[in-house]
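Students often ask why inverse folding is considered easier than folding. One informal answer: many sequences map to the same fold, so there is more than one right answer. In these notes we will look at a single instance of the problem. The structure comes first.
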């Protein structure tokens, strides 16, 4: 029993020591704010990290050249890149100066005065035509999570009294007192080439600031709702294509009939002398023809209105689709679409669709004009046959006029057929082009959101991969200022005792006390 009890005690002690050692090594939850001091060329002079914790027993990891408690007087224990402190503060801050001097971004700043490169240290107090080139690319030595998921905001401040004719691109410009603020936003996974030009004299410039944050956008798109609307459009296009094919088939039959009618009218003109005995029957037939064509002509407005409604429905559908994709495109109309769509990449198929609709409407108009002309020709025919009964000498002239009217109608029908054929070809291309467009739109939406918000990787520590419980990492970087003159420095006064916020401001050069 004694041996068994001893074994249990030994096992319990060993087990508890294992648990204690494991718990003692577990990093505490924290936030990291990385403050970087850059030289005028964009190189890193120093990197400082403010680590932010809740109170209690704190374990953290990092390779620092020095560390400093910014919250309390409690001592920090730093051994083998492991930092430990037991604090009663509700919120605890400590600063560490990183041994490494690498950022996720390689920043390169160049200065040119009157087209000649000059160092930033030489630029203070100079005058001339200034160009500042700032380049940002990925630093492959650092975990790509930061480059792929963090957006940068770069800000420059130029004194309006010293700088004029400021020219730059892709910047947000704002006036702040006597200075012009230039702000640039770089999305995750992207580099930048920024150029600023200005005429300067006695040049000075405040530090360039660069802030890096993990970009999180509250965009919630219902892809199924969007693709559902697209499917409605695709089905409507199929119906339009089927209807256009049926209309074309009917118009082909009409065209064949009109050709036969024209040939018959020519034969009538040539053989008009043989019809003198049947003038009464011819006059009766001409009246029936006139009535029939009048009835056909009475449908012209309905046919034209139907074509215009098809045109309107197509434009409405296209506008709805473009509006749903989030593209900033004004409403398309028959008057403006041809000037708007060619300037927008990827919408050539939409323009082809709308071209077909316009051609269809024009074809219907040509057809109705032809029917109207034929109706007029039938009236002439009726008058001619009436005159034929009283004067056979005028029959030949009237028959020839009737033939010409029939030929005009035949030409109008041919033009309508050509227009409708082009429209039907357009609907077939549109039908083929929109097949599977719902999947393409889904992929495009995902691609756009990924380009804006990054890859969605888990937040990781910039300081050490042993810190596995990170809620936020932020980068605050700034360059040195460019001064017109650097007066001799007076002997440094005795350092005053600073509170927490004064220490934090002094770290980044914002405390002047």
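Output (designed amino acids):
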């Amino acid at each position: 029993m004694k041996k068994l009890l001893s074994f249990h005690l030994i096992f319990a002690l060993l087990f508890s020591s294992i648990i204690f050692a494991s718990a003692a090594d577990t990093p505490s939850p924290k936030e990291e704010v990385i403050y970087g001091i850059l030289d005028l060329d964009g190189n890193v002079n120093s990197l400082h990290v403010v680590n932010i914790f809740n109170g209690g027993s704190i374990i953290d990891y990092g390779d620092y050249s020095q560390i400093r408690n910014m919250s309390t007087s409690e001592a920090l224990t730093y051994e083998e890149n492991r930092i430990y402190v037991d604090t009663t503060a509700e919120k605890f801050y400590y600063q560490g100066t990183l041994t490494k001097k690498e950022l996720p971004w390689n920043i390169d700043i160049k200065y040119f005065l009157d087209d000649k490169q000059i160092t930033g240290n030489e630029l203070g107090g100079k005058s001339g035509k200034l160009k500042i080139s700032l380049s940002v690319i990925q630093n492959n030595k650092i975990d790509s999570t930061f480059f792929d998921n963090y957006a940068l905001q770069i800000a420059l401040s130029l004194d309006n009294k010293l700088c004029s004719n400021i020219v730059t691109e892709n910047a947000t410009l704002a006036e702040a007192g006597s200075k012009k603020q230039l702000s640039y936003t770089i999305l995750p996974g992207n580099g930048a080439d920024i150029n600023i030009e200005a005429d300067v004299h006695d040049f000075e410039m405040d530090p360039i600031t660069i802030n890096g944050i993990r970009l999180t956008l509250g965009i919630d798109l219902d892809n199924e709702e969007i693709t559902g609307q697209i499917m409605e459009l695709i089905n409507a296009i199929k119906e339009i294509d089927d209807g256009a094919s049926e209309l074309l088939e009917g118009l082909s039959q009409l065209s064949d009939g009109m050709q036969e009618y024209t040939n018959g009218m020519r034969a009538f003109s040539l053989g008009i002398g043989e019809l003198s005995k049947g003038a009464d029957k011819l006059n009766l037939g001409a009246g029936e023809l006139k009535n029939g064509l009048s009835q056909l002509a009475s449908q012209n407005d309905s046919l034209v209105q139907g074509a215009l409604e098809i045109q309107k429905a197509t434009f409405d559908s296209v506008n709805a689709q473009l509006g749903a994709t989030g593209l900033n495109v004004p409403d398309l109309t028959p008057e403006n679409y041809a000037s708007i769509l060619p300037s927008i990449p990827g919408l050539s198929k939409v323009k082809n669709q709308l071209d077909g609709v316009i051609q269809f409407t024009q074809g219907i108009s040509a057809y109705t004009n032809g029917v109207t002309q034929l109706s007029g020709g039938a009236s002439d025919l009726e008058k001619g046959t009436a005159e034929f009964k009283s004067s056979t000498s005028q029959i030949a002239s009237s028959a020839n006029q009737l033939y010409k009217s029939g030929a005009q109608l035949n030409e109008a029908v041919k033009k309508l057929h050509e227009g409708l054929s082009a429209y039907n070809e357009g609907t077939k291309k549109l039908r083929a082009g929109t097949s599977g467009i719902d999947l393409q739109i889904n992929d495009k939406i995902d691609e756009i959101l990924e380009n804006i918000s990054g890859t969605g990787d888990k937040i990781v520590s910039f300081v050490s991969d042993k810190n596995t419980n990170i809620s936020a990492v932020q980068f605050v970087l700034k360059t040195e200022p460019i001064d017109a003159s650097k007066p001799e420095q007076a002997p440094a006064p005795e350092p005053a005792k600073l509170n927490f916020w004064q220490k934090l401001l002094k770290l980044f050069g914002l405390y002047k006390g």
